[in-house]
Amino acid sequence: MADVSFTVIDDGRPTTIQAAVDDGSVRVPPVQLREAFGYELKAEGLCHGDTCFRVADPASLVNAAGIDLARCAEIVDRPLAIDVPQRVAYLGVSAGDRSARLASGEAPDFTLPDLTGTAHSLSDYRGTKVLLIAHASW
């Protein structure tokens, strides 16, 4: 396994950490996992604050090289996209969180420029009706 600099993104926040990469598998030291995603491996499982996820097979999650990012994402029920050649990983929002967001009827905030380059955030227009027009070239 080769140790490389790896960028992981969670909730739009990129963090650069050291990771061990071998045949598509990305493993990070426990302290790096806490720094990047806020998860810690404890006796009760993989924990984020007061919420812990039971780890049925710890050997599939952690070894001498570190914690397997893909297995970690699977345990916490969050999608993970990894691009090993580009040395980047993105931890998505869990299905439960997405479902709750959809049920609330409130669109997530985003910021985009208008035709003159002025940035506009959806949150600037909360409480007013907004018409969004999207176009795709495909």
Question: What would your notes on this structure say?
Answer:
By secondary structure, the protein is of the alpha+beta class. The protein has a domain at 2-96: Roll (Ubiquitin-like (UB roll)), CATH 3.10.20. It is 21% helix and 38% strand. The chain has helices spanning 30-37, 58-61, 69-75, 95-104, and strands at residues 2-10, 13-22, 25-28, 40-42, 45-48, 51-53, 62-63, 66-68, 80-83, 88-91, 111-113, 119-121. A 7-stranded mixed sheet has the order 7-8-3-2-1-10-9. A 3-stranded antiparallel sheet has the order 4-5-6. A hairpin with a 2-residue loop joins strand 2 (13-22) and strand 3. The longest helix has 10 residues, at 95-104. The termini are far apart. The model has no long low-confidence stretch (mean pLDDT 88).
CATH architecture descriptor of the domain at 2-96: Roll
CATH fold topology of the domain at 2-96: Ubiquitin-like (UB roll)
**Main beta sheet strand tally, sense and closure:** 7 strands, mixed
- Main-sheet strand order equals 7-8-3-2-1-10-9
Q: Cα distance, first to last residue?
A: 40 Å
Extended strand count: 12
If you compute it from the alpha carbons, what radius of gyration comes out, rounded to the nearest whole angstrom? 18 Å
- Strand pairing plus helix content: what structural class? alpha+beta
